[in-house]
């Protein structure tokens, strides 16, 4: 059997799914879409794994299929995410090098991608005459958003996460990108003493984002930008009302696969 390159079809199935996909489910969906047998679909998936297009992940005894992060991924118009051993060497790209770990993500999850799109649109596409001087990434995880903020023009960024494993991974990724002099990673809880900031980014869940709204207002100095993600689509209106009540103005929002992100100005 000669196997044509079905990467786009398989990646389309994975990216369109709101839940993680098992190998069996992926083979069945591919077979139905292409009108081939399940055996032929499995051969296609085996070839794509060998070619580094998709990969298996193992979590809590379950196996899932995900787009591979064995090579650089174009996440937004400007941002490229690359594994530590596969740089693009493209001087024109805003390339972010990431080492896989507990907080690892290739930028394909909607919450991360929406945040990167917001950063791209706010700091790069809009071509602001002067970027924010000081930024904060609250719940930094792997540090990918802190790295994006600095690569997009922020002078410095403070990455905060209460999970010490995340702090360690973020610090490692900051070092891989040689930005230790501009990004500080800490396990401290955010408080008023950390401010003021010109931009705050937070990819957290709705209850936490709602609770932090007054603090975000206190630690930002106008004109300031707040970028929020990790919001379910049905939570967005309430969160926007909450921030508007405090004096923020919504300037952008987008939803994808049941998740939303929003940008506010102060």
Order of helices and strands: HHHEEEEEHEHEHEEHEHEE
Helix content: 25-40%
The CATH homologous superfamily of the largest domain corresponds to Vaccinia Virus protein VP39
Shape: globular
Which architecture name of the largest domain does CATH use? Answer: 3-Layer(aba) Sandwich
Mean pLDDT: 87
Please give the number of β-strands: 12
Report on this model:
The chain is α/β, with parallel strands linked by helices. It folds into two domains: 7-67, Winged helix-like DNA-binding domain superfamily/Winged helix DNA-binding domain (Arc Repressor Mutant, subunit A), CATH 1.10.10; 110-265, 3-Layer(aba) Sandwich (Rossmann fold). The chain has eight helices and twelve strands. The strands form three sheets. It has a seven-stranded mixed beta sheet, sandwiched between helices. Strands 3-4-5 form a three-stranded mixed beta sheet, covered by helices on one side. A two-stranded antiparallel sheet has the order 1-2. Strand 7, helix 6 (164-176) and strand 8 (183-186) form a beta-alpha-beta unit. Helix 2 (23-34) crosses helix 3 (38-50) and helix 7 runs parallel beside helix 8 (236-246). The radius of gyration is 20 Å and the shape is globular. The mean pLDDT is 87.
């Amino acid at each position: 059997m000669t196997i044509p390159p079905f990467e786009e079809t398989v990646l389309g199935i994975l990216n369109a799914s709101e839940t993680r996909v098992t190998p069996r489910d992926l083979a069945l969906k591919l077979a139905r879409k292409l009108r081939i047998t399940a055996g032929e679909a499995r051969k296609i998936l085996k070839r794509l794994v060998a070619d580094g297009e998709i990969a298996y992940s193992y979590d809590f005894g379950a196996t899932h299929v995900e787009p591979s992060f064995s090579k650089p991924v174009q996440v937004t118009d400007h941002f490229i995410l690359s594994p530590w051993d596969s740089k693009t060497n493209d001087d024109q790209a805003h390339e972010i090098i990431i080492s896989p770990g507990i907080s690892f993500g290739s930028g394909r999850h909607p919450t991360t991608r929406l945040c990167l799109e917001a950063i791209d649109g706010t700091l790069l596409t809009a071509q602001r005459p002067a970027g924010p001087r000081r930024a904060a990434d609250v719940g930094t995880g792997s540090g990918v958003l802190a790295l994006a903020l600095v690569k997009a023009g922020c002078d410095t960024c403070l990455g905060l996460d209460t999970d010490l494993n995340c702090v360690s991974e973020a610090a490692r990724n900051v070092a891989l990108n040689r930005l230790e002099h501009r990004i500080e990673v800490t396990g401290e809880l955010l408080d008023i003493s950390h401010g003021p900031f010109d931009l705050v980014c937070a990819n957290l869940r709705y209850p936490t984002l709602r609770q932090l709204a007054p603090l975000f207002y206190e630690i930002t100095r106008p004109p300031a930008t707040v970028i929020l993600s990790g919001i379910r689509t049905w939570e967005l209106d309430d969160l926007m009302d909450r921030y508007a009540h405090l004096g923020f103005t919504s300037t952008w929002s987008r939803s994808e696969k049941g998740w939303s992100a929003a940008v506010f100005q102060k």
